[in-house]
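Hello,

Our lab assistant flagged a job as stuck in the queue for most of the afternoon. It eventually completed. Since we weren't sure the result was trustworthy after the delay, we are filing this so someone can double-check. Below is the sequence as submitted and the structure that was eventually returned. Let us know if re-running is recommended.
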Amino acid sequence: MKLSENTSISALTTMRLGGNARYTVDIETLADLTEAYEFARAKNLPTYILGGGSNVVGTDADFNGLVMLNRLTGIEVISEQSDEITLCVGSGEDLDTLVDYAVQRGWCGIEALAAIPGTVGGAIMQNAGAYGQEIAQVLLGVDVYDTAFAKFVHLPTADLKLCYRSSIFNSMEAGSAKGRYFITAATLRLHKCEIQGNLYGSLQAHLSEQGITDRQPQTICDAVNTIRALKLPDSRTTASSGSFFKNITVDESQVESLRQRYPGIPIYMIGNCWEVASGWLVEQAGLKGQLLNGMRVSEKAALILINESARNYDDLAAAREAIVAAVKEQFGFTLEQEPEEL
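-- returned structure --
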């Protein structure tokens, strides 16, 4: 077990903010995992699971506990039939690596998730999605370590309560299991086909502009990579946590009236939810490109906040509240932060 002391949380998260973690440990094997929890129990320490740090914002406070860095990797084909493939994937595997692995083999189901930073475990925790696809659509279940009983178990997808950016792993609602489980691996089912149905608006627009009608996984993946490269900062070189606000979910009964009231408002059916694109709301509120307390609202995509010169978490919080207030005043919607806080 690789244990370190007093590690800067800002160095572990892509927004580059945060205090220190008393202890951090690399979880590379299941033995590391059980040993880490035994260490935490012996010292009566809280624990926090961290993958790539792209969907977590550090506060200024130190974390007097154990941050468990998920390094459980690997992709294994469990079964392959004429039209589908079942995979077992380590939860610490980079999501984009998994997407590349799949599309190179012509497997459909996660190609639109290309270039999303973070790990497979993190993607499951928040039911990551983009351009009309969500991890829930291909997930069969997860292997987890259950800290309540100190044992490894399997949870089927039906037990995970996956919905828009939410699951039992991060929800604070009744029935949540936040903090109880460490996801160790995921079982996914992909197919040998092209993406079906109507494509997400900006994805279809890009394909149409390029005269592309092919819907093969590699084609869709390449298109998504191109779109994201034009809009989103590279978290390896730019301090950002990607999409900072969740999209607004609305009832189907509201859709037509919103379209009439705000011509051009982007509303899409994603999974079972109708969503309003929050980036459009921020842009329409006149904040695109603005610098607020050291946080830049991206000029390319208004859903992105870039840490240019924020001194601390309070600067981020002030920028966030200014954006939330502006959108609330103009549209009546209350934006919700997507990244967790550590």
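-- support follow-up --
The delay was a queue issue, not a problem with the job. The result is valid. The chain has a mean pLDDT of 95. Helices lie at 30-43, 95-103, 120-125, 201-209, 217-231, 252-261, 278-284, 313-331.
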